[in-house]
Design a protein that fits this description.
- The protein has 175 residues and is mainly α.
- It has two domains: 81 residues, no CATH class; 68 residues.
- 82% of the residues lie in helices and 0% in strands.
- The protein has eight helices and no strands.
- Helix 1 runs antiparallel to helix 6, helix 2 runs antiparallel to helix 3 and helix 6 packs antiparallel against helix 8.
- The chain is rod-shaped, with a radius of gyration of 28 Å.
Amino acid sequence: MILSSLLNAGYSLENSVKEALVELRLLYVKDNLIIKEFEYINQLIYMNISVERAFDDLAYRSHSEDIRSFAKVLRIAKRSGGELESIIAHTVGVIGDKVRIKEEIITMTTAKRFEQNVMNIFPLFIVLYIDISSPGFFNIMYTTIIGRVCMSIGLIVYLFAIYISKRLLNIEVSL
């Protein structure tokens, strides 16, 4: 977003990257990874390596699909001589939307995982409560064959439900 704003302000791409580093230093702590990466990109630019190659290098080192996409778009936009500002602004917007959606999905599944953990232990507390408040209530379930079969089936269903719920909520979010 900073890069896009600087391009809209009239800076060249190379100067935008240099100024973006100044802005990033105001936003993040000194040892933040994004600051180190922009310092490295600025060093590459200082050594007369093109901005496109510097971002390609960042994409290669980071293994991030979003950075790879941005580097590709940057390379194509710079080569085609199109409206670099609007292309980068649009790309940044798309990547930002992807990140927001991913964070939203993670937030929603985290809440459901917590719910699942509560629901997994809740039956144990119910059995413990009944056993403490009404001693002998479950004797028939543990002393007769039919009771043992019912409790075994109930345990199997309970464990299967835990397994299914963990599988349902163990989704990988990759946009």
